[in-house]
Amino acid sequence: MGIKDTFSQAPSPKEEALYKRVLDEVEAGVMRKGIFAKALADCLGDEKKAHSLYIKYRVQSLADEKKYEAKHIAYEKKQAVEQEKIEATKKEERDKKLAEEQFQKDNLNKGFIKKLKNGYYGLATTFWIFGVIGIPFLYFLALISTISVFLTGYIGLFIYLIPLSYGFIVLFGVRKASNRYDGFKPWSILANLIAVIAIVCIMPLTLMFLS
Known about the structure:
Order of helices and strands: HHHHHHH
Number of strands: 0
Distance between the termini: 83 Å
């Protein structure tokens, strides 16, 4: 809010309230000595003129105080919002840590297959070691086994079901591990997407194979 330097323009409602407050202060004998000293100096010691100028200076000081208060309140609100964000982040990190500790505790004594299905070994290990390397390796072993001993019929089918079942377990493990992954988010999203696509593609092939 600016204080007008011209006397011809009427004060705004906000300025009027400030002028009234200053006049009430003057009538009550309350004056800011520093402001009055400035007005007196600018009027070259003329006290009558200094009183009039004091009112303008005091109105301006009140306006500045209100601006400062508004900025201070805005700053405090901003600080409060930032502090809430920090507290929320800390709480989220604590909750994740507690959830991970509980997950590790719940799966500690479970067997390999259950751990793998639950994503216990982490996203990178489950995806690359047990998935990208493990699934083709098991299919290769199944192929070698059936060719080397000429296994056909139900026995050969059973052997191929082993890597197929293992693949499903790994893919479900990848999905669960990606949900727990706390690193580079696009990587977890991509791994999850690949797992979903693989499951959707393998299911009809499995039904065709079994029929």
